[in-house]
Amino acid sequence: MTVPTSDGHNEGAPPLGGNAPTLEDGSDGGPPPTGKSTGKPTGKSIGLIIGLAFAGLVAYSIVNAILGILIFISTLDQNGPNHPIIISCTIFLALLGLAAGAGLQFLRKPWATGLGLGFLIGWALWSILSAGICTGISPDLYT
């Protein structure tokens, strides 16, 4: 119920001219206009994130398998293990899994989030399954 005031306005109703009260951020509290992102992923982007997370996991696994074979072969050298190859491969795998994975998270795009999560999950998975061989967390191999 609105009550008329002495200046002709109804108390509790917006002023004449249609200007509704605004919140601190300047909005009227209604839904965001179209095209303005709310920061929450939509249904389509969640599927993209999950799909690219699996793609990132597979991509990291393929690179890890190729470099893991190279590291394995370099340790079987008759002159002793080839430490520069071992160290460079493990640094590359750690940078790909951790640095690229975390760096892609800062882009805040659905494709980057999914791919970055896939790299991070791949690095963690292969670190657990291989006891740190080829992922840079087993220092006994490099001495």
What does this protein look like?
- The chain has three helices and two strands.
- The protein has helices at residues 43-75, 83-105, 110-129, and strands at 3-4, 10-11.
- A hairpin with a 5-residue loop joins strand 1 (3-4) and strand 2 (10-11).
- The termini are far apart.
- 21% of the residues are buried.
Compute the number of helices.
Answer: 3
Number of strands: 2
- Major sheet details: 2 strands, antiparallel
Low-confidence stretches: none
Strand content: under 5%
Distance between the termini: 82 Å
Mass-distribution shape:
elongated
How are the SSEs ordered, and which strands pair?
Blueprint: E1 3-4, E2 10-11, H1 43-75, H2 83-105, H3 110-129
Antiparallel strand pairs: 1-2
Helix pairs in contact: 1-2, 1-3, 2-3
Name the descriptors.
143 residues; mainly alpha; two-stranded antiparallel sheet; 53% helix; elongated
Short note summarizing the structure:
The protein has 143 residues and is mostly helical.
